[in-house]
Design brief:
By secondary structure, the protein is α+β, with helices and mostly antiparallel strands. The chain folds into two domains: 48-63 and 100-250, Glutaredoxin; 255-309, SH3 type barrels (Roll), CATH 2.30.30. It contains eight helices and nine strands. Strands 1-3-2-4-5 form a five-stranded mixed β-sheet, with helices on both faces. Strands 6-7-8-9 form a four-stranded antiparallel β-sheet.
Length: 313
């Protein structure tokens, strides 16, 4: 019996040592795989007062758990309800025809939709263009330059949340309407600042197309334009890599890129087809409908091939 117990204790000791050894190797392997922390951003490219950040998880969507903003301009709301098949579904052409309102969007709804559809990260700039000297400096030294503008137009979707942009735009509005508008916009901006954990101005938040935060950049000092731009370039590269993985995961679930006859594109899954009428759903849950005749020749050929495979006419 004594020999059996000794053998058992010896086996347990060996197992424990092996387990500890494996854990150590696993830890070392993880450090090798993530030498710059979960975000993959080297320390020298991070903001001087930023935390290491959170990892980008392809296929995830942090935005899904976030509450809706308290105020969104009526014309920016897309009324679709994936849980209610009888709800009106907007025409795809209407959604794709959303006009761009300059280099910087003013609606988070439109900016997030464009980011998801175009596969570009979203840069949110929290600023006060009237009262903050450093906000003005950031605009003058970086965001207003042609070089940055050309790069950002190709690589990013931009959203500006400006504390000074709370002026009523309707000259015929009475005092009550004006005050109500200002209150709503202030509450909306406060909701965005709370959602993205903005503690001071200027602040920048970079999201990938699936809605995950991949970079936070707080504050600005004169002369730091190139340093900050380098951070944004690296964040865009990290986002681009994560987006390709995220997109491939959705393609396995039936999502694909659709194009209309005006070369406008949408990444969506076909949920129904009947006598030339199609219904789509995008990754963020937005639904739309269109007719086969409105699609590109490539998409019509794809539909014909699918019908042939299923013996449909």
């Amino acid at each position: 019996m004594r020999f059996v117990l000794l053998a058992l204790f010896s086996a347990m000791a060996l197992t424990s040592c092996a387990t500890l050894g494996l854990g150590k190797k696993s830890e070392e392997k993880k450090k090798e795989d993530e030498p710059f922390g979960p975000t993959g951003i080297p320390p020298q490219l991070r903001a001087k007062n930023s935390d290491p950040g959170i990892p980008v998880v392809p296929g995830g969507n942090a935005a899904a758990s976030q509450p809706a903003a308290g105020f969104t301009p009526e014309e920016d709301i897309v009324y679709t309800d994936p849980d209610n098949p009888d709800a009106p579904i907007p025409e795809l052409s209407t959604l794709l025809a959303t006009a761009k309102r300059g280099p910087w969007e003013e609606s988070e709804t439109i900016a997030r939709q464009r980011s998801s559809r175009e596969g570009k990260p979203l840069l949110i700039w929290f600023t006060d263009s009237e009262s903050s000297p450093m906000c003005k400096a950031l605009s003058q030294e970086l965001f207003s330059t042609n070089d940055f503008g050309n790069w950002a137009t190709e690589k990013l979707i931009r959203l500006r949340v400006d504390a000074a942009n709370i002026k009523i735009k309707d000259p015929d509005a009475d005092l009550g309407e004006s005050e109500n508008y200002r209150t709503n916009v202030k509450n909306y901006y406060a909701t965005l600042k709370k959602r993205y954990k903005v503690l001071g101005l200027p602040s920048l938040v970079l999201l990938n197309p699936s809605g995950e935060v991949i970079g936070r950049y707080r504050g600005y000092k004169r002369g730091d334009a190139d340093f900050l731009w380098g951070q944004l370039k690296h964040g865009e590269a990290v986002s681009s890599t994560a987006y390709q993985t995220w997109r491939k995961g959705l393609e396995k679930k039936g999502y694909r890129e659709w194009q209309d006859r005006r070369d406008r594109k949408v990444f969506a899954r076909l949920t129904s087809y009947s006598e030339g009428n199609l219904t789509f759903i995008e990754p963020d849950g937005t639904r739309s409908r269109t007719q086969e005749t409105n699609l590109s020749n490539k998409d019509k050929a794809w539909i014909a091939e699918q019908k042939k495979l299923r013996n449909l006419h």
